Amino acid sequence: MSKQLFHHINKYVAITEEEFQTMFPFFELRTLKKKELLVEAGSVCNQNHFVLDGCLHMFFINDKGTERTIQFAIENWWMTDDLAYHNQTVTDFSIQAVENTRLLAITHDKQEQLLKEFPQLEKYFRTIYQISYGAALVKMKYLFGLTKEEIYFHFTTQFPQFAQRVPQYLIASFLGLTPEYVSEIRAKKRS
Amino acid sequence: MSKQLFHHINKYVAITEEEFQTMFPFFELRTLKKKELLVEAGSVCNQNHFVLDGCLHMFFINDKGTERTIQFAIENWWMTDDLAYHNQTVTDFSIQAVENTRLLAITHDKQEQLLKEFPQLEKYFRTIYQISYGAALVKMKYLFGLTKEEIYFHFTTQFPQFAQRVPQYLIASFLGLTPEYVSEIRAKKRS
């Protein structure tokens, strides 16, 4: 299990098994049942999470009381409200397990300490954030450049395994669509 | 001029003036006239840009031939298509000067070399990307959680100086609104 984070770090920077053994105690293993809440909106955001297996989603509740999903995290993805985590402020987002999930959690203080002791991890996190930010710009391009129907089919074609394992209403929420609209365009495609 | 990047780096990591003097030749000073293109969609994305003064916007042209702005960069902001820059691939985005602009450009190869020679800059870029990614999640929350009218007034209230200096049609484009819609809600507010 710890091997997984070790291999993920080694995709971007070289660390030894001995170094990783010293890093590992900075993390806490958490297991969540499907639908269990990991973070509740309104709490101070002081943890970051690396998913070992399962799936999380981060969402907020809009004025109409509807859940809107902002991001997903599956195996080897990090998830937190990054701005609130950086500023150590209250988050507007909740994080919930979409499936039974195992993850490694690290507090903000411990992550700071980890980065101080192993500065080579700065490159690991820099690379991950660079990719994540770049992907967020691309997502914005799809939201602004495609019709709702195109957004849905682009997403499900681009990430077929993901689209199969995550409930349709969450995919709809992530793409800014209503579940009814998604049912409608899926039915249209089948007919 | 070079002082500006020096001070910006020192907001996040401590570097000496001597170190900065060694870093500075990695960059090239560029000046752009208002409306001049810095990057054209379809080219390989191999430069990153730090704005000294002025303003840039990154945009793509949608199927209807309309420009959609994805991000802005004013003084002390970095701008590139981060995913294409990371992968060294062709970008779908163009970057253009909104005002006369002076910036420091660095190629991908030189940035890699800079980070190798000054690994403490990994923390600087990690922090900047962490904040940028966090802000992108917050933007997504506004796009998904507010009405079009609320998005516009939230943005112009939150960033009044920015809203004053950037043409309305670009702000509309950035917020996923049409210029006609923005004129309409501004007129409604005045009446």
TrEMBL record, chains A, B:
Source superkingdom: Bacteria
Native organism: Flagellimonas aquimarina
SUPFAM superfamilies: cAMP-binding domain-like
Ranges of residues in domain Cyclic nucleotide-binding: 30-117
InterPro entries for the chain: cNMP-bd_dom (IPR000595), cNMP-bd_dom_sf (IPR018490), RmlC-like_jellyroll (IPR014710)
Protein name: Crp/Fnr family transcriptional regulator
A Pfam cross-reference name: cNMP_binding
